[in-house]
Amino acid sequence: MAAAACFNCATPAGTGLRPRKQCLDNRVVLGTIVEQLNATRVSMGQGRPSRRSRVEPVRCSGIGIGDFIGGDLLKPDLGRWLSDVEEHKALAIYTPHEGGYEGRYLARLRYQGYYFLDLTARGLGDPETTLTKIHPVCPAHVGKQPIARWYFPPEVDYRLAALPPDAKGLVVWIIEAKVLSKSELQFLALLPTLRPKVRVIAECGNWRKVMWKPLKEIAGLTADTES
Asked: What does the alpha-carbon distance between residue 208 and residue 26 come to, in Å, rounded to a whole number?
């Protein structure tokens, strides 16, 4: 039969080392070392902090009624949102990371009679060519088919021509616009000047709550810049 082992010091029970007594001796030695370390910390001013010196929990400032009711249910800034869209015509919007809040603002524009063109900035290519000019697209050939090039009509002009007569305009909503360069953002800010019935909403980043700024300001253009 295999000899039993002591779980505290891993010593075979059949030896003459008296494992139980050895374990007790080890515990005494460890307790002495811990006491010495505590005494050293107290002498160096690193003892147990008092209640007054304990770090208080971090509290977020600016808590309002929206933090208790829910940010997706209470939106008192929808009126300002509509007025800013009509005034600036191109906005850079910042939404929370969890997403979903921007749907309220999109729906309010839809109620006003706007139609939408949803695009992602990744893979968009040159915004000026893709949105306002006939542009080529090379489909994936997977290494077997010959390399082809297809031509597509301007995305914005094609949608504008297909709008119903009672439509108020076309909103170009671009997600992940934070990957666009400064010159590309400048063109998007000037797009409503080139196409008066177009409004541009670019998601340029994230924030704790939904906020927006004129896209001309983000792109480094002045308010009176004209193409």
From this structure: 54
Phi, psi of 136 (to 5 degrees): -85, 150
Nearest to 89 by CA among 218, 216, 227: 216
Q: How far apart are CA 57 and CA 77, in angstroms?
A: 31
Of the chain, the end-to-end C-alpha distance in Å amounts to 94
pLDDT higher than 70, residue 30: no
pLDDT of amino acid 129: 92
Q: What is the pTM of this model?
A: 0.65
Task: From 170, 162, 205, 177, select the one nearest 191 (Cα to Cα).
Answer: 170
**CA–CA distances in Å: residue 81 to residues 102, 170, 172:** 11, 16, 16
